[in-house]
Design brief:
Number of helices: 12
Largest sheet: 4 strands, antiparallel
Length: 322
């Protein structure tokens, strides 16, 4: 089914909107697996509900293969994808996975897109040394051991994000922390919207966290919620990337500001990073979110880069952990 579309920012990625009537016609629910073609290039993806719209993401590699860029008008063709999704493992990766039963089981549980991403990163390595480092890092991340000296270890979910273990910092007041569940997605999305809404006028664009699909975020990443009286008051999203242990989002509902919850969530992230064997954590924020920059600097984060990404002027900061 063909339709016109515009390549646009979509949360922290780039994508096109699929008309709702086409999603309905596909007959596979609101998150159908699809094969999408633009300019003769076809790839497999999944439609993602986002802010009342239906989006198919387009990676940088697929944009390059299609010869398109953000802002372009395109003709897209989307078809329901019913073929089994199997990622061919390079022999050296397969051998490493087979040598670690825990890593093999975790990798086999990964979603197709995550498997493909990991395999592509290994294939894209420029040197044998880089390739081996990426394989070793993947095994360590999903297999549960990331050695940073004697006795250091980590626990990880199938998606390559750290799983909660051991104790966590004492929450302020009567807050409690727990792992987010799929049913929490609407409440988390509402909290994030409330927390970031006041930035829209200041930065002139909707902050990325407000447009994220929290069904997908909770499924793919480590998301912790802080509760008070059975109401979600704060949220923390953590990921592991090529740059290290990322605090992807920390948000507190406006009605709970000034009570130490944001700092407690940051402390929790740092504690998780230590348990996972990382020597530092990093995050980014918009250059116009000056109160965030001041807070992060005050508690030990140091700016190390500035990047213009997806329309956002971002300041990257890192904190080395004792």
């Amino acid at each position: 089914m063909r339709f016109p579309a515009t390549v646009e920012p979509a949360g922290n990625a780039t994508g096109i909107e699929v008309p709702a009537e086409i999603v309905t016609a596909l007959g596979a629910g609101k998150r159908p697996k699809v094969a999408i073609t633009i300019n003769g290039h076809t790839w497999r993806s999944r439609v993602a509900p986002m802010g009342g719209r239906f989006i198919v993401g387009i990676s940088a590699a697929n944009r390059a293969a299609c010869g398109i860029a953000e802002g372009d008008s395109v003709e897209a063709d989307v078809q329901l994808d019913t073929e089994p999704r199997v990622v061919a493992e390079p022999p050296d990766l397969a051998e490493a996975l087979d040598g670690d039963p825990q890593a093999r089981a975790a990798f086999d549980r990964l979603a197709y897109g995550l498997k493909r991403k990991h395999v592509q990163a290994i294939r894209d390595a420029k040197t044998p040394q880089t390739r081996q480092r990426r394989i070793t890092k993947l095994i360590a991340t999903i297999g549960g051991q990331h050695n940073m000296g004697k006795g250091a270890g980590r626990a990880a979910t199938a998606g390559g994000t750290p799983a909660r273990q051991g104790t966590v910092p004492d929450p302020p007041g009567s807050y409690s922390f727990r792992r987010a569940r799929p049913a929490d997605a609407p409440a988390v999305a509402a909290l994030v919207h409330a927390a970031y809404q006041h930035y829209v006028a200041r930065i002139g664009i909707t902050p990325g966290p407000m447009t994220d699909d929290y069904d997908q975020v909770i499924r793919d990443h480590q998301v912790t919620v802080a509760e008070q009286d059975a109401t979600i008051a704060g949220v923390l999203v953590l990921r592991i990337t090529d740059e290290g242990f990322l605090i992807d989002n920390v948000a507190v509902h406006p009605s709970h500001r000034g009570q130490g919850l944001g700092r407690a969530l940051l402390d929790l992230a740092e504690a998780d990073a230590r348990r996972a064997g990382f020597g530092s954590v990093y995050l980014y924020t918009h250059e116009k979110m000056t109160e965030n920059l001041a807070l992060y600097s005050k508690i030990g984060y140091i700016e190390y880069d500035r990047r213009h990404e997806k329309g956002f002027s971002r300041v990257y900061m890192r904190k080395h952990l004792a």
